[in-house]
Design a protein that fits this description.
Oligomer: single chain
Number of helices: 11
Strand order of the largest sheet: 3-4-5-6-9-10-11-12-13-14
Mean pLDDT: 90
Low-confidence stretches: 342-359
Shape: elongated
Bound molecules: iron/sulfur cluster
Structural class: alpha/beta
CATH superfamily of the largest domain: Aldolase class I
């Protein structure tokens, strides 16, 4: 059932052509319209000067371009920029700009809250309020790129904000198609990384996609007992099932799967864990990203010492596994790698203070 007004931000190029044709307009205007919205960040139809006046007037009467509204904008001393965005129903999400050189990275959310309940994650405490639509996911990039002046430059996208992307599969994949469209931001899937706890049927579906992003698996543990305590979905999709799905995953040449591993002092940071992790990843083109925990109030874990982190990394490197330790960004504005949360638990009000740690 079509909604009124029609939100053009939710449409892929072909759908936009169909929508214009159904209204009696030429299909080629869809490309111009898509370009205005997604590549130039223009949402005011009256400013789309290469469209016929009659079309602009009609779009103004009958359509909208859903665009999350920035309700807070915080800049870290290291240049990381975190915005809280209000959606049309008043829910609030966050997105983060990480100005790594040479590439810029936008970290975006796929859900309001998250149903996965990871023990070290503040977002998990919120529970799931709702899935984001494709337009809401893609629009975070448009809003951040406009805000930071990067609509015309190359950037990376990581789906590592609030939510589990594969739990919102359809909208996430549609958002990637919108972001990839040549008339829009034209983001190559090689520049997109999807981070997941490992929902095996969705991983298998992802393996069939034409547009396949880079894959990052949030592993965080080396035994099922340990992982189930930290990442509860492990009960349904245990380590072996996830790693077997990774072994079958059709990686493009020279690509590797990233395994994210949050280091929690005294929980999963022993040298035995490092050895077990090396064994688990046998036969997988893998790299490991170690993430020393960013401690936060309400999170019952501690960050390991730098010495322990180095020893863990060295044990993996000794097994010829590529390993990096994620530098924490934006800690002074609570946009560091860790978790995202909308204080107050449900994320319903745009006025709520948002405290963020990226996971
Ligand atoms: S770590 Fe990711 S998947 Fe787990 S609860 Fe947090 S947002 Fe959800």
């Amino acid at each position: 059932m079509p909604t009124f007004p029609l939100d053009l931000a939710e449409l892929e190029p072909g759908e936009l052509e169909d929508a214009l044709e159904a209204r009696g307009h030429k299909r080629f205007h869809a490309r111009q319209l898509f370009r205005w919205i997604h590549r130039r960040g223009v949402t005011d139809f009256s400013a789309m000067t290469d469209l016929p006046q009659s079309l602009r007037d009609e779009l103004g009467r009958e359509c909208t371009v859903g665009t999350p509204v920035i309700v807070s904008d915080q800049l870290s001393s290291d240049g990381t920029r975190k915005v809280a965005l209000a959606l049309s129903d008043g829910q609030t999400i966050e997105a983060v700009f990480i100005p790594d050189t040479p590439s810029m990275t936008f970290c975006v959310s796929t859900q309001v809250g998250c149903a996965m309940s990871c023990a070290f994650c503040l977002t998990g405490r919120m529970g799931l309020a709702r899935h984001l639509t494709a337009g809401e996911i893609a629009s975070q990039v448009r809003v951040l790129a406009t805000l930071t002046g990067h609509l015309e430059t190359r950037f990376n996208i990581v789906l590592m904000g609030m939510g589990e992307p594969l739990h919102n599969y359809e909208h996430t994949m549609k958002a990637l198609r919108i972001l990839h469209a040549e008339a829009g931001l034209s983001v190559s899937p090689r520049r997109v990384t999807l981070s997941t706890v490992g929902i095996v049927p969705a991983l298998e579906r992802l393996a069939e996609e034409a547009l396949m992003p880079n894959l990052a698996i949030s592993l965080h543990a080396t035994t099922d007992a340990q992982r189930t305590a930290i990442v509860p979905p492990n009960r349904k999709y245990p380590l072996k099932a996830i790693l077997d799905a990774c072994r079958r995953f059709p990686l493009p040449k020279r690509s590797r799967i990233t395994f994210e591993y949050v280091l929690l002092a005294g929980v999963n940071d022993s040298l035995e864990d490092a050895q077990r992790l090396g064994t688990l990843l046998d036969g997988i083109r893998a790299k490991v990203n170690l993430i020393p925990l960013n401690p936060a109030p309400g999170i019952p874990f501690e960050r390991p010492s730098d010495r322990q982190v180095d020893a863990f990394a060295a044990a993996l490197a000794a097994r010829r596994i590529t390993v990096s330790v994620r530098k924490s960004r934006g800690r002074d504005i609570r946009a560091a790698c860790g978790q995202l949360i909308v204080d107050g638990g449900t994320g319903r009000s745009a006025a709520q203070q948002v405290a963020t740690l990226m996971r």
